[in-house]
Write a structure and sequence with these properties.
By secondary structure, this protein is an all-alpha fold. It has a domain of 203 residues. Helix content is 76%, strand content 1%. The protein has 21 helices and two strands. Strands 1-2 form a two-stranded antiparallel ribbon. A hairpin with a 2-residue loop joins strand 1 and strand 2. Helix 4 runs antiparallel to helix 5, helix 4 packs parallel to helix 15 and helix 5 packs antiparallel against helix 6. The longest helix is centred in the middle third of the chain and has 32 residues. The protein is globular, with a radius of gyration of 21 Å. The two termini are 26 Å apart.
C-alpha cells in the first residue's frame, strides 16, 4: 500500500473511521444525546465526503493495483448515493423520534451500508465487488428489522436476509467460475482473457450467476420476490432508503461488471438484460394496479423503473449508459419527494399507508396535494416534467441502437403504469373519504418535498445540467 493508495481512498477511510469512533463513543453516553449527535454528524459527514470525492485530485487514479477505481463513472454514482442517503436521513429523524426508534446504531448502520455502496461502485475486481456488496447488505438486513417489536418488520428482515444470502452466494459462485476460466479476478484481465481466448462455457455460466445476483440487488424480475414484503414490513424511513441509494448502487454494479469485464461480449449478455427489462417493466406496471398499501405500490413502482433503466443497459452504447445515469438521478429525486410525503401520512397520530386514506386530501392540504401530484405525474412520465425526459433519453438510446420494439414496449408499460399514479391524484381531488388524514409535515420535510417537486419542473429546461456529467461518466466507463 502506497501513500497514493491511501489518498485515493481517503473519503472512504474517513467514513470508516467516523463509524468506528461513533460506535465506540456513543456507547458511553446517554442514548438520546448520543443518538442526536451521531445522527446529525452522519448527515454532515456524508455531505462532506461527497464534496471530497467531487474535488479529489486523485479521482482518476486506480488504487491497490487497480482493485479500487475512482473514475468519473464512480464519482457520479458515489456523489449521488451520498447526497440521497443524507436526504433520507434528514427525513428519517422525525419519524424515528415519534415511534421511539431513534437509536445511535441507526445512522451508523446506514453509514456502513453507504460505505459498502461506495466500494461497490469503485470496485476493480470481483473480490472487492463482493466485499462491498456484503458490507452494504449486512447493514440493510439489520435496519429492515429495526422495529423489533413488529412482526412485519421482523418478517421483512428475515426474508431479505435469506434471499439476500442466496443472491450473494450466486454472485460468489459466478465469480469463482469466472476466476477458474480466466485465471484472474481483475476486471481488466478478465476483459483481456475474453478478447484473447473467447467466451468460454465457464465464463458464460459465471456471467449468468453474476447477473442473477445483481438483478436481485436491483429487484429486477424474476428476482423481485422480496421487494413488496420488505418495503411493506420495514419502517417507512428504511423503505425510502431501500427505494433510492441501493438502487443506484445496484445499477452501478451492473454497468461496471458488464462493461468492464464483458464489454467485448455484448451479444452474450444483451438478450438476458432485454428479457429482465421487459419483464420488470410490465410486472411492475401491472402488479401495482391492485395494491392498496402505498409502500407496496412504491415497491412495484421501483421494479418497473428498474425495467426502464435496464433498457439503457441493453443498448450497450455510450448514449444508453448516459441515459441510465440521468434516469437514476431523476428517479431518486422523485422518490425522495414521495417518501417525504409518505412519512407524514397520519390519522390522529397513527401512521397510515392505505392509499384510500388519501381521498380528498386536497381539502386537508391543497399545497401538499399539488406538489405530490407533480411528483406522481413525473413518475408516470407525463410531459413536460423531468420524469418524461428521463424516459425520453432511455427510449431515444434504444431506438438509436436498433431496439425499437423494446422502446415501444417501454412506452406501453409507461401508459399502464400511469394508471396507478393517476389513481392517487384522482383520489386526492375527487375521491370519497370517511376519515381525512390529519398529519402535518415538518419544515425539513417540506423543503425536500417541495424541492423535489420543483426540480421536476425546473429540470425540464436542461435536466439541471445532468446530461454533461452523465456523458463524461459513460465515456469513462467505456474507455
Amino acid at each position: 500500500m502506497t501513500h497514493l493508495d491511501v489518498l485515493t481512498i481517503g473519503p472512504e477511510l474517513l467514513l470508516v473511521i467516523f463509524c468506528l469512533i461513533s460506535l465506540l463513543v456513543a456507547s458511553f453516553y446517554d442514548s438520546i444525546n448520543a443518538s442526536n449527535l451521531v445522527f446529525f454528524s452522519t448527515i454532515g459527514l456524508l455531505i462532506l465526503v461527497a464534496f471530497l470525492i467531487y474535488i479529489s485530485p486523485y479521482k482518476m487514479m486506480p488504487a491497490f493495483g487497480g482493485a479500487f477505481v475512482r473514475d468519473s463513472f464512480a464519482q457520479y454514482f458515489q456523489i449521488t448515493i451520498l447526497l440521497s442517503v443524507a436526504a433520507l436521513l434528514i427525513l428519517s429523524k422525525e419519524y424515528l423520534v415519534k415511534y421511539q426508534l431513534l437509536k445511535f446504531e441507526y445512522p451508523i448502520l446506514v453509514a456502513f451500508s453507504t460505505l459498502g455502496m461506495l466500494i461497490v461502485v469503485s470496485s476493480g475486481n470481483l473480490l472487492v465487488l463482493y466485499l462491498g456488496i456484503e458490507i452494504q447488505s449486512l447493514s440493510l438486513y439489520v435496519i429492515a428489522t429495526f422495529r423489533r417489536n413488529n412482526l412485519k418488520s421482523t418478517e421483512a428482515g428475515l426474508k431479505y436476509f435469506v434471499l439476500g444470502s442466496l443472491s450473494s452466494g450466486l454472485m460468489l459462485f459466478g465469480s469463482s467460475l469466472i476466476y477458474g476460466s480466466t485465471g484472474s479476478i481483475e476486471f481488466k484481465e478478465i476483459y483481456a482473457a475474453i478478447n484473447s481466448g473467447g467466451f468460454l462455457l465457464g465464463i458464460m455460466a459465471g456471467l449468468v450467476f453474476l447477473i442473477s445476483g445483481m438483478a436481485f440487488k436491483a429487484s429486477a424480475v424474476p428476482f423481485h420476490m422480496w421487494t413488496p414484503d420488505v418495503y411493506e414490513g420495514s419502517p417507512t424511513p428504511v423503505t425510502g432508503f431501500f427505494a433510492t441509494a441501493p438502487k443506484l448502487a445496484a445499477m452501478a454494479i451492473l454497468l461496471r461488471v458488464l462493461f468492464d469485464c464483458f464489454g467485448s461480449a455484448v451479444e452474450s449478455w444483451q438478450q438476458v438484460i432485454i428479457i429482465l427489462s421487459f419483464c420488470s417493466m410490465f410486472l411492475g406496471s401491472i402488479a401495482a394496479i391492485g395494491q392498496k398499501n402505498i409502500k407496496r405500490l412504491m415497491a412495484f413502482s421501483s421494479i418497473g423503473h428498474v425495467g426502464f433503466a435496464l433498457i439503457g443497459v441493453a443498448c450497450a452504447t455510450e448514449e444508453g449508459i448516459a441515459a441510465v445515469l440521468i434516469y437514476m438521478v431523476i428517479y431518486v429525486i422523485m422518490n425522495v419527494g414521495v417518501f417525504a410525503f409518505i412519512l407524514n401520512m397520519e390519522r390522529e397520530g397513527v401512521a397510515v399507508t392505505n392509499i384510500e386514506s388519501l381521498a380528498m386530501y386536497s381539502d386537508v392540504s391543497p399545497g401538499q396535494a399539488f406538489f405530490l401530484a407533480i411528483l406522481l405525474f413525473s413518475l408516470a412520465g407525463i410531459p413536460p416534467l423531468a420524469g418524461f425526459f428521463a424516459k425520453f433519453y432511455i427510449f431515444s438510446a434504444a431506438i438509436d441502437s436498433g431496439l425499437i420494439w423494446l422502446a415501444i414496449s417501454g412506452g406501453i408499460a409507461s401508459v399502464v403504469a400511469a394508471f396507478y399514479y393517476l389513481r392517487i391524484v384522482y383520489l386526492m381531488y375527487f375521491g370519497e373519504s370517511k376519515e381525512l388524514l390529519t398529519g402535518s409535515m415538518p419544515v425539513t420535510h417540506w423543503i425536500l418535498f417541495v424541492g423535489a417537486a420543483l426540480l421536476m419542473l425546473v429540470g425540464t429546461v436542461n435536466l439541471y445540467g445532468l446530461d454533461g456529467p452523465a456523458k463524461v461518466a459513460a465515456f469513462s466507463l467505456l474507455n
